[in-house]
From TrEMBL:
Entry similarity comment: Belongs to the GMC oxidoreductase family.
Designated name of the protein: GMC family oxidoreductase N-terminal domain-containing protein
Keyword Flavoprotein part of the UniProt annotation: yes
Cofactor(s), by name: FAD
Species classification: Bacteria, Pseudomonadati, Pseudomonadota, Betaproteobacteria, Burkholderiales
InterPro entries linked: FAD/NAD-bd_sf, GMC_OxRdtase, GMC_OxRdtase_N, GMC_OxRtase_C
Keywords carried by this UniProt record: FAD, Flavoprotein
Segments forming domain Glucose-methanol-choline oxidoreductase N-terminal: 276-290
């Protein structure tokens, strides 16, 4: 990363995460286009990235995680949360839960209704399918290589498989959910994800399948693609030359790992920010794009007043209820015994199955917090284990955890600069449970969890509520307890909101071009105007797939 003179590229992609890896693949497919992909982290050559249970060793590890933390949150009764973000090739797809989830058709139809032409479910579905490699083969909602459903392009690189495990306690929870009125589902990705069943995951034969493997590695031998790692983008550069266009992005300034003089890279085509819902708004603000008062507070010259930059932060808060059980095996006991750990390791070594192939959550359910809801507004992540907090030891008794989140929170937070230094972590204020509607749904969701666990299918295991505790009954008590036990499920979005220019908080237009400037696009989860109804990694890939087509077409 030490060129003798600033190199010139057609496209510069800032961030080699989920979106950046796909963009690098698609844009460099044209051998006439020079592409630079810049990543602040290192290569994805750490063993624990690839073993699914290794997320335990990647989150909170400076080798793979930005190590962000939220500010003290009133909705969480003053607590701060660890806020993992991938800092490695593959980004969050290298450290996340591997769950393949598109959300609901209504999510995308709503984006379109907000004035974003071209973002309906019908228009987004082909982009999901364009890169999908679905284990069951192709049909009207899925694609797989070698198939050509209804004359459409066959699928591609993003492998989606069934999990290679099962647990009696999870099967019992699924049966109990059905007894409570939640239907069975064997596919959450057909536009309406209501139901209960095991999640599909982004793995290949029990090994994590991240965006770097799927999209970047096949393109690395292209002469027109260059990848910089250990390179921190500090700001976007504009044409401030005499007679130039000061609203035209022409490159980026990059800080090399370990210090030294900043490097410059120039773009004759576009600069594309794909750094995620935390880092993208930080780069925009450092570049003079944001709320004028905030930029001036940090001594940053205002390039263009965009008050929505960093605002509109949305995330899924999971409320983790823990139930002790008897007469059934859970990971708590199995993984605490030395011989249990040895058997787990041996099974994975020989077959790539079992506990080491586990995604963080195995069983899912989508349902309504109450019958008046017009669509499923809750998501469950159920695990055959329990602990006090992520990263803490497993409990010394058999238990399972039923985590539930409000899919469509009305609370909004923000990501703002802490200082004018690009090396200072931004200030993340999530504002969880800051609306009455979110607190009410939190209380309802805990009651629903109790109703599911009280069904006959789980009775043989004598479940006992450990957390939050049956002594808490009122809405006020349960909402406060939700603040005590809730934690992020790692789905921040929305901080560079897509919307028409008439929307005062919109940052990008429907083709993801930044309002008020030229040659600059945002392509990551930050552009979502509202959060999708489920896990956000694969929707981010869909966004990148669509953007790549527009960029190559010059639209």
């Amino acid at each position: 990363m030490n060129p003798s003179s600033p190199p010139v590229y057609d496209y510069i992609i800032c961030g080699a995460g989920t979106a950046g890896c796909l963009l690098a693949n698609r844009l460099s497919a044209d051998p006439k286009k020079r592409v630079l992909l810049i990543e602040a982290g290192g290569k994805d050559d750490y063993l624990w990235i690839h073993i699914p249970v290794g997320y335990l060793y990647c989150i909170g590890n400076p080798r793979t995680d930005w190590l962000y933390q939220t500010e003290a949150d009133p909705g969480l009764n003053g607590r701060k949360l660890r806020y993992p973000r991938g800092k490695v090739l593959g980004g969050c797809s290298s450290i996340n839960g591997m769950i393949y989830m598109r959300g609901q058709a209504r999510d995308y139809d709503h984006w379109g209704a907000l004035g974003n032409d071209g973002w309906s479910w019908r228009e987004c579905l082909p982009a999901f399918m364009k890169h999908e490699d679905f284990h069951k083969g192709a049909d009207e909602f899925h694609a797989a290589p070698g198939f050509d459903p209804v004359g459409k392009r066959p699928g591609g690189e993003w492998r989606v498989e069934k999990q290679r495990l099962r647990w009696d306690v999870l099967d019992a929870f699924a049966e109990a959910a059905q007894q409570a009125g939640i239907p069975h589902s064997n596919d959450f990705n057909r536009g309406d994800n209501e139901g209960v069943g095991y999640f599909d995951v982004n793995q290949r034969r029990g090994i994590r399948w991240n965006a770097a493997k799927a999209f970047l590695r096949p393109a690395l031998d292209r002469d027109n693609l260059q990848v910089w790692t250990g390179a921190h983008v500090s700001r976007v550069l504009f044409d401030d030359s005499e007679g130039g266009d000061p609203r035209r992005a022409i490159g980026v300034e990059v800080l090399p790992h370990g210090g030294g003089q900043p490097e410059i890279a120039h773009a004759r085509g576009e600069v594309i920010l794909a750094s995620g819902a935390v880092n993208t708004p930080q780069i925009l603000q450092l570049s003079g794009l944001g709320a004028a008062s905030q930029l001036q507070h940090h001594g940053i010259a205002v390039r263009h007043h965009l008050p929505g930059v960093g605002g509109n932060l949305q995330d899924h808060l999971q409320i983790r209820a823990v139930f002790g059980v008897t007469g059934v095996n859970t990971l708590n006991i199995q993984a605490r015994r030395w011989w249990g750990k040895a058997l787990i390791g041996l099974e994975y070594l020989l077959k790539q199955t079992g506990a080491m192939s586990m995604a963080p959550s195995q069983l899912g359910a989508f349902t309504r917090s109450d019958p008046s809801q017009p669509h499923p507004n809750l998501e469950y992540h159920v695990q055959p284990l329990s602990l006090d907090a992520f990263g803490e030891p497993l409990h010394p008794f058999n238990a399972f955890t039923a985590s539930v989140c409000n899919l469509n929170p009305t609370s909004r937070g923000h990501v703002h600069l802490r200082s004018a230094s690009p090396l200072d972590a931004p200030l993340i204020q999530a504002n969880y449970l800051s609306t009455e509607a979110d607190r009410h749904i939190a209380a309802q969701s805990l009651r629903l969890t109790r109703r599911i666990v009280a069904q006959p299918a789980l009775a043989k295991y004598a479940p006992k509520e450990i957390k939050p505790g049956t002594q808490f009954e009122t809405d006020e008590e349960l909402a406060r307890l939700a603040g005590d036990i809730g934690t992020t499920i790692f789905h921040p979005v929305g901080t560079a909101k897509m919307g028409p220019e008439a929307d005062p908080l919109a940052v990008v237009d429907a083709r993801l071009k930044v309002h008020g400037v030229r040659g600059l696009r945002v392509v990551d989860a930050s552009v979502m105007p509202t959060i999708t109804s489920g896990n956000t990694n694969s929707p981010t890939l869909m966004i990148a797939e669509r953007a790549a087509g527009w960029i190559l077409a010059g639209t």
